[in-house]
Amino acid sequence: MTAPFVKQLIDRAAAPYRAADRFAWHFARGKLRGDPVFAGLLEHGLIPDNTRILDIGCGQGLLASWLLSAKTMQDNGLWPAHWPPAPHPISIHGIEIMAGDVERAQRALGEAATFTTGDMCKTDFGSANVIVMLDVLHYVNIAAQNDVLQRTRNALPPGGTLILRVGDASGGLPFKFSVCVDYVAGFVRGHRNVRLHCRALPDWCAALADLGFTVRTLPMNKGTPFANVLLVAKLVQNTNLQSRESQI
After folding, report:
1. Would you say the pTM of this structure is higher than 0.85?
2. pLDDT 10s digits, 206-238
3. Domains of the chain, earliest start first
């Protein structure tokens, strides 16, 4: 029963991109169909209700369109009973380094979400309750990654949520395949001389724990040959208490 619902949600979330351009619409449909993270975020109830969401490395705003479409479907009574309720965000803001993607996102979604052209290593994150970064940190070196993580921590209140999808560098052949695909995808999107900086899963968890997050992990590669893992990190209420937790 889930499959027809997910297909309907994909169609609804991709539809606004017809207003952007044909490429944006085809890309939206392909990405939403092929990437398990979108359904995973909803199926696992990872995004709390009534929050301000910051999507770093948002591309053409697919996460925003996905969450807004999910809210509409639930409001219309079209929601599977065995899934957690869809989140109703207060606001969604995306930051993306590629100006063309930002333009597509804004044309597609209008005033339903806001998008900023900027480098995550330099752009002010402001404040948010939930910060999402999917497959973006490995494009900058380890020192820059640590700085971005520190700034995301500073942008969150105690109890805030940071959701990262990363490649597990200890993931063997699936990880190597992921790296090859990332190189190709980066080149196609206009990133020349792409260099990736990856970590093993325990190192990611340790870096987040050192910043005061508790971390749980979820495999997020269903139906794909990749070594992708979702890190769901909660900023502890008392940031002097730091713990390390990994649940695979």
Report:
1. yes
2. 999 999 999 999 987 665 656 789 999 999 966
3. 2-61+73-235 (3.40.50.150)
Over the chain, what HEC string results? CHHHHHHHHHHHHHHHHHHCCHHHHHHHHHHHHHCCHHHHHHHCCCCCCCCEEEEECCCCCHHHHHHHHHHHHHHCCCCCCCCCCCCCCCEEEEEECCHHHHHHHHHHHHHHCEEEECCCCCCCCCCCCEEEEECCHHHCCHHHHHHHHHHHHHHCCCCCEEEEEEEECCCCHHHHHHHHHHHHHHHHCCCCCCCCCCECHHHHHHHHHHCCEEEEEEECCCCCCCCEEEEEEEECCCCCCCCCCCCC
Sheet containing 213-219, strands listed edge to edge, beginning at the edge strand earlier in sequence: 114-117, 91-96, 52-56, 130-134, 161-167, 228-235, 213-219
Q: Which residue has the tokens 């649940």?
A: 247
How do residues 75-99 score in pLDDT, each as one tens digit? 999 999 999 999 999 999 999 999 9
At 161, the amino acid letter reads T
What is the Cβ-side half-sphere exposure of residue 201, based on CA atoms within 13 angstroms? Answer: 23
Residue 13 confidence class, pLDDT cut points 50, 70, 90:
very high
Residue 31 corresponds to which tokens in the numbers above? Answer: 């990405």
* In contact, 166 and 246? CB cutoff 8 Å: no
